[in-house]
Structures are given as structure tokens and as C-alpha cells.
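It is worth pausing here to work through a concrete case rather than discussing structure prediction in the abstract. The textbook approach is simple: state the sequence, then state the predicted structure, then interpret. We follow exactly that order.
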Amino acid sequence: MKKFDNVTILDHPLISHKIAILRSVETRTKDFRELVEEITMLLTYEAFKDLPTHEVDVVTPLVKCKQKMIPENSVAVIPVLRAGLGMVPGVHTLFPTAKVGHIGMYRDEQTLEPQEYYCKLPEGVEKMRAIVLDPMLATGGSAAAAIDLLKSKGCKDIRQMSIIAAPEGVERLATAHPDVKIFVAVLDEKLNENGYILPGLGDAGDRLFGTK
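Step two, the predicted structure:
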């Protein structure tokens, strides 16, 4: 895969360790869900590094000082339903005041292209940093369509966070939206003939919610 300036692949022993457990067929729903949250926390730390801040006065037990804080109503996380929901608690653990919107996409089994069926975004999202959450970046179609939708609503500061990505999906998204920074925990080998990531981890939504 060619190198893209807007793509960050996290390379960290803690992530590698957690991904190994996440992939295993023996990992139960509860543990799978907790691992998704933990990996999302690590992604969030990286994706939030350049968030705008402002100075506030803080009174410590000893003295008053200046301290940088993230302004309220400046961040919205947008999970792509349904698997993206599993990443929201990981963001909220580090930044509990982040607003939450929802975009519903399903993949047409014949064309593998995304179809939108739901969209509910926070008021004023166009003024916030919008962070799209989807644990699996496979073909890149759903992520690209979700970002297209956010741009149509006026969003200009957009990030994408995924846990596992295929090279095909990263290339498609990075090319379609070069202004969007993409954060991925691990880059896998390829897509199979059905558009699933290999080695991957199966269907993230089913494993998060115990539906299979």
C-alpha cells in the first residue's frame, strides 16, 4: 500500500497484545466488548492530540494558575451503526462530554456499496470536530459515505477511527478524503472475495452484541 500523509497506523505493543486477544474465536462477547473500548481509548489519545484548547483560570490548593482545556461542545463522535457503537464508551472514558451522533449504513451484499438508512447528528455539529467511529475499515465505502454525509451537513474538521483496516479500504478513504485524518490500530493483509478483512476478526457487530 502506498503511503498517505493523512493516515496514522498505531504501532504499539499494548495494541498488538489486545488485538491478538480480540481476533481469537475463543474471546467471549464481554471480553470482546471491553477490548474494543480499551483499544478505542488508545486511538482516542492519538486522534485528540491536536484538539484546539483555550486557557482558563484554575485555583489549586496553593495558588491560581492558567491551564489549557478543551472547549465544551467542540467534539462529536459519530459511530457508524451498529458496530461503531462499541467504540463510543472508549472515547467517553477519556472525554465524557463528547456529543454523540449516529449514522446508519448497511452494505449491499451484491455491490458491496453502502446504503444510508439513518442519520441523527448533534446540533451545531458543523462547528465541532466530528470523529467517525467504525471498528472495521474494509472496502472503505461506508466510511467514505459517512464522511460525504458529514461534509454535506457543513462539517469541515473530520477524523476517522478504526481498529482494523484493509489496505484497500485505507487507500479508498485516504484518496477520497485527503483532508480527513485516519487513525487505525492495525493494518491487515487484504480483503477476501466477499469483502471481509483477512485475517480480521469476523463480524465486529455480531461479536460486540452476541448476535451470532
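Step three, interpretation. The first strand starts at residue 7 and ends at 9. The chain has a mean pLDDT of 93.
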